[in-house]
Design a protein that fits this description.
The chain has 16 helices and 18 strands. The chain has two domains: about 5-145, Roll (Thiol Ester Dehydrase, Chain A), CATH 3.10.129; about 160-469, Isopropylmalate Dehydrogenase (3-Layer(aba) Sandwich), CATH 3.40.718. It is of the alpha/beta class. Helix 6 packs across helix 15. Strands 15-14-16-13-12-17 form a six-stranded mixed sheet, with helices on both faces. Strands 2-4-5-6-3 form a five-stranded antiparallel sheet, covered by helices on one side.
């Protein structure tokens, strides 16, 4: 238990002093910038700082000043002190790694208002003064002895930028035509309309026209720029949406307010559906604040217990997507519970087989490694502890999960425990398929449209062909 005690005005004597020592870290600079709003590049931009007077990142001057406040408020005079004024001179910069000792000492007492003047200094590890000045306070009149409050832990995460980048990139492409299947509620109608306004899709609205117009009127949406294909019910919406894709009138398919199974049933029909020789699979595109780059997870939505042959297609689908999204040589971590081949765990055998298939050219365009446990796949430190020497371990772009249950749990844990944003697309069919959920945020719905648009653009330009060669 740490106690905080003060000295009252009557207990203070000239020359009384107190101090504390802190070492400036990059994290301190970032936290101070967040709290203060001071994003001066001298403190945060290494390239800018290298060309500045000091040739390196330096701390905010008031970070040192805040340490003076900490001494005054917790040590001398301590709790109950009222800060009236501060005069500071900044003598030297404080860089990352500098150890700063701040000291205050009583210089003057004014009995009429119980005002105390204190000399304040801050020196670095070399004993050189970095800050000097005086503080004026009203000292407490009553003794305080309190237990110090335990502060919450603070974690710094990267900002969400993956989806912003995807959406901005799609704005440079020609828009793709998208058959929006049964957009008969607010979410399923406004999502594609918003994507259309941003310029990366041309929606074809397939559903009961009266219902679509009713929703549009409620949401003040102008439907005049968009084609509407009238249907009687959701089953016909699915049939006609798939038919538009088969006929080449739509380059992507988007789920509306019907059930996923109803639409995917039409997609999977052998005679009239959108099947190809490739296994259909779903890819989550995730923006995880605690991970330094975009992360793809597959398959967490379509294939429940995929076979080895299925996994080869699932893997290739994800690789193709990563390539058209700008990852030149995706790194695929094939997940299991352990990082060694263990005959009693089938997923470890399949992981080893998939790696050999990649060696023989049966899976192309990426680096594969597995089996890898989740920690080894995304943490270089964890991989090093296990002595795993792999270009994939700790730097994965794609997580290939053992089955749908595992994938669904991984994706949702990242969303709800790591505050990740997720978008998704179904691949392996004649066209990319956008599956949205009522729980999706607006950026996630837009990002799903954008991911499909990028994939369709890859087909237009031949990039997908290159990825599969």
């Amino acid at each position: 238990m740490v106690m905080i005690e003060n000295k009252t005005y009557d207990e203070l004597s000239l020359g009384d002093s107190a101090s504390l020592t802190r070492t400036l870290s990059k994290r301190d600079i970032e936290l101070f910038a967040i709290v203060s709003g001071d994003v001066n590049p001298a403190h945060l931009d290494e390239d800018y700082a290298a060309a500045s007077m000091f040739q390196k990142v330096i701390g905010h001057g008031m970070w040192s000043g805040s340490l003076i406040s900490a001494v005054l408020g917790t040590k001398l005079p301590g709790p109950g002190t009222i800060y009236l004024g501060q005069d500071l001179r900044f003598k030297r910069p404080v860089a990352i790694g500098d150890e700063i000792t701040v000291s205050v000492s009583v210089k003057e007492k004014r009995d009429d208002k119980k005002i105390v003047i204190l000399d304040c200094t801050a020196v670095n590890q070399d004993g050189k003064e970095v800050v000097s000045g005086t503080a004026e306070v009203i000292a407490p009149s009553e003794r305080v002895n309190r237990e110090a409050q335990e502060l919450p832990e603070v974690s710094l995460h990267k900002a969400h930028h993956v989806f912003e980048h995807i959406i901005e990139q799609c704005k440079t492409y020609e828009p793709i035509s998208v058959a929006v299947c049964h957009p008969c509620d607010k979410v399923s109608l406004t999502g594609p309309i918003e994507a259309a306004k941003l310029g990366f899709i041309n929606p074809i609205l397939v559903g009961p026209e009266a219902k679509i117009r009713e929703v549009a009127a409620e949401e003040n949406v102008d439907l005049s720029p968009y084609r509407i294909v009238n249907t009687i019910h959701s089953h016909e919406s699915a049939e006609k949406s798939v038919a538009l894709c088969r006929a080449g009138e739509a380059e992507a398919l988007m789920k509306g307010s019907l059930h996923t199974d109803e639409m995917m049933h039409e997609v999977a029909r052998r005679d009239t559906g959108l099947r190809t020789e490739r296994r259909i699979s779903h890819v989550f595109v995730m923006d995880v604040p605690t991970y330094p780059k975009m992360l793809l997870i597959t398959d967490a939505a379509i294939n429940i217990y995929p076979s080895l042959e299925d996994k080869a297609d699932i893997c290739q689908n994800a690789i193709d997507l990563a390539r058209v999204m700008g990852v030149e040589e995706p790194k695929v971590a094939i997940l299991s519970a352990v990082e060694t081949v263990y005959p009693k765990i089938a997923s470890t055998l399949e992981a080893a087989a998939l790696c050999k298939m990649a060696d023989r050219g049966q899976i192309q365009g990426a680096l594969l490694d597995g089996p890898l446990a989740f920690d080894n796949a995304i943490s270089k430190e964890a991989a090093a502890i296990k002595k795993i020497n792999s270009p994939v371990a700790g730097d994965a772009d794609i997580l290939l999960v053992p089955d749908l249950e595992a994938g669904n749990m991984v994706a949702k844990q990242l969303s709800y425990l790591a505050e990740a944003d997720s978008a998704g697309v179904v691949l392996g069919a004649r066209v990319p398929i956008i599956l949205t959920s009522r729980a999706d945020t607006a950026p996630a719905r837009l990002a799903s449209c954008a991911v499909a648009a990028m994939f369709a653009h890859g087909r237009r330009t031949g990039a997908l062909k290159t990825a599969a060669e």
